[in-house]
Design a protein that fits this description.
By secondary structure, this protein is an alpha+beta fold. The chain folds into three domains: 73 residues, no CATH class; 48 residues; 161 residues. 41% of the residues lie in helices and 15% in strands. It has ten helices and seven strands. The strands form two sheets. A four-stranded mixed β-sheet has the order 6-5-4-7, sandwiched between helices. Strand 1 and strand 2 form a beta hairpin. It is extended. InterPro entries: Transposase_27_IS1. This is IS1 family transposase.
């Protein structure tokens, strides 16, 4: 009789432990799900939805979404296992200044894949280092580049326009490169493309360009900004001019991707302290390419391929 009682007590104890463990699991799942958002609509209302190849799947409970996803869906390396395994090697080659073709040969990948990987780095760099607006001070310079259709099979009969790029820099060496106009840079283009990127209280100063100087004077007058002589000391009045020389090492850059390269140039310039007056000309020329970034964003091949110039 006592054995039967003991067995019942033991079974009851096991049952209570099982219930307790399952309760803990439900609570932990709820806490875990609180940190998981739908990557498509950002809703927090998600549930577990089975698994595939050992990977937990989730489903969004938002009536307008109801899409399934995994934790890997938000990963910057999704849909590309090969890139995840080789991105550090590619980054090392890339930072040495090797061409797309040379990187492809060393890593045994296609030229198209090498091109895509390069622009994944550049896209990420642009997103991470994005500066919306310059405050306090903005030094404006301009460079004009002839339109380049590199990689475009149907560019034989296309007319090449002159593309005006305005670079705005503050004293902290935050740089905004703006593709401002096609062929003609007028006050309408300056007002639409440059004015929103400069704070109304910021001092605007321009060098080596009459239109930019007129725009700066108008900006300062309208916003009642007083300029002292110390405020018009150039940080690097030839920054825009140097861009042409910097781009030569790539043996041609398609203009529709020029914003990626301008972001790279701005990052390299700031990190290498190229603007430091203590460096002589030879030391500045010896500076190596340095991206110094990790992949934290995702962009698809279709988005890169379908990219167009914003002007």
């Amino acid at each position: 009789m006592s054995k039967t009682i003991n067995n019942k007590e033991y079974r009851l104890k096991l049952f209570k432990e099982k219930i307790y463990k399952s309760t803990l699991k439900i609570e932990s799942d709820k806490k875990q799900n609180e940190y998981i958002k739908c990557p498509h609509c950002k809703s927090k209302h998600v549930i577990k939805y089975g698994s595939y190849n050992g990977i937990q799947r989730y489903k969004c409970k938002n009536n307008k979404c109801e899409r399934t996803f995994t934790k890997q869906t938000e990963s910057p390396f999704r849909y590309s296992k090969k890139f995840k395994e080789n991105c550090h090697k590619y980054k090392e080659l890339y930072e040495k200044g090797l061409t797309i073709r040379e990187c492809a040969e060393i890593l045994n990948i296609s030229i198209v894949t090498s091109f895509f990987w390069r622009h994944r780095f550049l896209y990420n760099l642009k997103q991470v280092n994005y500066v919306e607006k310059l405050c306090d001070y903005a030094e404006l310079t301009r460079v004009v580049l002839l339109e380049n259709f590199k990689g475009d099979r149907y560019s034989k009969n296309k007319e090449k326009d002159k593309i005006s790029i305005v670079n705005a820099m503050n004293k902290s060496i935050d740089i905004i490169s703006i593709i401002a106009a096609r062929n003609h840079l007028g006050f309408r283009e300056l007002k639409e493309n440059i004015e929103p990127r400069i704070d109304k209280k910021a001092i605007a100063v321009a060098f080596l360009d009459g239109r930019l100087q007129a725009f700066s004077d108008k900006h300062n007058t309208i916003n009642k900004i007083r300029i002292r002589r110390i405020d018009i000391t150039p940080i690097d009045a030839s920054y825009s001019v140097k861009i042409k020389r910097w781009l030569k090492k790539f043996r041609g850059v398609a203009t529709k991707y020029i914003d990626h390269y301008l972001s790279w140039r701005a990052n390299e310039y700031k990190n290498n302290i190229e603007y430091d007056y203590r460096l002589n000309k030879d030391e500045k020329l010896k500076l190596n390419i340095d991206l110094n970034i990790k992949i934290t964003t995702y962009v698809s091949w279709n988005n890169i391929k379908s990219k167009v110039l914003p002007v």
